[in-house]
Amino acid sequence: MRDGTGAGLDAAGLIALDRAHVWHPYGPMPGRTDPLVVESASGVRVRLAEPAHGHDELVDGMSSWWSAVHGYNHPVLNEAARGQLDRMSHVMFGGLTHEPAVRLATRLVEITPEPLRHVFLCDSGSVSVEVAIKMCLQYWRSVGRPAKQRLLTWRGGYHGDTWQPMSVCDPEGGMHELWSGALPRQVFVGPPPAEYEESYARELREAIGRHADQLAAVIVEPVVQGAGGMRFHDPEYLRVLREACDAHDVLLVFDEIATGFGRTGTLFAAEHARVAPDVMCLGKALTGGYLSLAATLCASRVADGISRGEVPVLAHGPTFMGNPLATAVACASIDLLLGQDWQQEVKRIGTGLRDGLAPAGELPGVRDVRVLGAIGVVQLDHPVDMAAATAAAVREGVWLRPFRDLVYVMPPYVTGDEDVARICRGVFAAAREG
């Protein structure tokens, strides 16, 4: 007989069922460590079903993988969700449309750089990258240049866990190295240096020029490389890419899934360089962490080219595309963000992270400490002991999720100064123990 639903179980019972049935991200089945059971969340805190290391709630330094920029249980977003539930939670997007999706697409066009004018709504960040790549490949096929079907990117990147996005993640030492023999073979250049170097800019230009006849697009994470290593690079490289792509007739894609909606100090990271891509991917903070939703935006050149092709449609249509509930919350989240001085809040958090993380630079085994916008990173000179580092942070009352050689934070924008300081103490402890 099966175990049943788990309703009404205590934390131990839930953990037992979790271990038996639930496959967690980036983990084995069954898991080797027990996750903490979250009972509820509010503001910047997650409340645990049972205390861990003396704490029954933890300050979230991760914004739930960078998405919950307004914190949890926000009354504005709650009301947006409730109001939409009373009208409809879902309706198919094929042949039908509705106000929340139209409002969201219009809003995204208004706030993103020109010439992005068209919005394809999808389920997750990884799928938005799939759609972006499909757009680029189909564009060149539609305009009579089908040989342009490869992608160029720089090493150290991460674009998601589905098939095409895996092909443009770092092929050596990344989490998708296992699939290197099966994935499409893309063109890679070295990782972008933190500071501007003309020799590296020349490498970018030469690589794009050398492979231009094969290249459908260049795809990069602008300014911040996320899960591939939390590296920051000079925005001037984005200008180099834009100019080289224009010179050699190659499309440019910016993956702003992690950097969009203010995380780096500008609304979109592309604004640091005052350049615009032909295609942009958005996700994570789009709904304030409430529901899974992403978007792929493109310029009219791309949409018109596809629409004039032999197959004049983009053959992609997720079941939950344009979900009314998710798009309604996304509209509310964007309005909430832009209706306040979010730049000042991001700057305040960045200042707190710089002050609070600086002492970690003196710890043995710490290679680098860096901060940009509301992102703080402590890089070790060895792989982090995730279990030890996580436990150390929890003892400080903080939830972190270290990986590889990194202990990093992306707090919600509503995180107060005292909680920023607590998060920094958690990072310090994790770096010391990990």
Automatic annotation (TrEMBL):
CDD domains: OAT_like. It comes from Streptomyces ficellus. Its EC number is 2.6.1.62. It catalyses: (8S)-8-amino-7-oxononanoate + S-adenosyl-L-methionine = S-adenosyl-4-methylsulfanyl-2-oxobutanoate + (7R,8S)-7,8-diammoniononanoate. The keyword Disulfide bond does not apply. Pyridoxal 5'-phosphate binds at residues 125-126, 255, 318-319. The gene is bioA. This is Adenosylmethionine-8-amino-7-oxononanoate aminotransferase. Substrate binds at residues 65, 158, 284, 317, 401. The keyword Iron does not apply. GO terms for biological process: biotin biosynthetic process. It is found in: Cytoplasm.
